[in-house]
Amino acid sequence: MIIKDFANTLSDKGESLASGSARMDMELFMDAASNKYHHEDNPQGAFALNVAENSPMVAAMKHKIEKIFAEVSPDDWIFKYTDALGHPPVREVMANFMNQYFGPADFSAANIAFSAGAAAVIEVSTFVLLNPGDVVVIPAPAYPMYTNDLALKNDVERYDLQIFETSGSEAKKGGLNVEMLEKTRLELDSQGKKIGMLLITSPDNPTGKIFQTSDLLDMAAWCHQHKIHMVVNEIYALSEWKKEKHDSFATIMATMQSEYLHLWYALSKDFAMSGFRFGLVHSLNQAFVKAYGNANIPHMVSNLTQWIVGTIFQDAAFIEGFIKESKQYLQKSHAMVTALLEKFELPYADAEGSFFIWADFSRFLKVGDESEYMAFWEEMYRKSGVLLTPELGFGQKSTGYFRIVHTAVSIAELSIAMQRLEAFLEEKM
Ligand SMILES: Cc1ncc(COP(=O)(O)O)c(C=O)c1O
Question: Per-residue pLDDT for 192 more than 60?
């Protein structure tokens, strides 16, 4: 039994949350989720290629966890309270892992903390670093849920700094430099607004672009000079398939030793564990870590999850093999989708990492306005069963882009999804 239609019983924010949806593609996503493709049981079913999950790697992680539960008995500490930053021995294990894959760097149990997924890490970090009204500058297009994660509870403002309008050389270059940041700072300053944070995602969501170390170094120096916090979200760090080794912002942090530089990571993507809710923040700012611990209690990772994660990440050979296998899948799924885009001469961002292809479908639009675009998105889904993420909320200037998550389903399923999409696009030509 649920009491219905009780308007005006909530806070202002509660009222607004009760009338909206966390994601604008939620309704069709629910439709696709309830009609999921299965080669035998539901061959006409749908493919939700709109949610960033590492589906091809779920089986490998599941197998590892089954093995742990069969062979190892959980420690007694999991039944008790622990340090709000994360259980110290598990922080030790994760710091070793981070030094290996994100180093050379200064990770230690004392300068990392865990929260329930990257979303919680983003929210708690913002709470501790910024004041209400501060502006977070993000190179756009960017992850739409940043708006919620940064600002739902913290009352900060998201500012999309447009760096990507077309595919090709501009996208490859990175397109963000200190001059652009300084121009934005002065512009906001003239409006009486203050930049509190520069937020970079690398590899990026949705373009898959990797920001070059030299560019990040320049931006970090500029941020330090202006007392602006700079955070690099490397949640897709080990999903770069063109390079062996990830060049992490952590190395710049170790070199600069600045209290304004921070790093976010989570196991949701690279390790196919989005449901485990395990996020991590790294900062050399001791006051930040102290404050984070005090703010983090409602956002802690459960001890059972911390225990499993600590046990998995002690097995260095498993981690190495897992990353290798994941990269092989990524290469395959990326190639499968880009082959279709090439066939229809649809431009797309030159991704080097992440799970995404940011593709321009505007050649199928005549008017090019939002209502035609949204109608095209829905028609694509209704006719092909393939659901993509629309560009709304990403801060993309032009109309016609969709984000394709090439890891959202297995390779075999992706092949069928691409055949369906091909038939739909043929018909639209
Ligand atoms: C760039 C970025 N940050 C954060 C998140 C949220 O991750 P989590 O599921 O760990 O909260 C996502 C998920 O799609 C993401 O793409």
Answer: yes
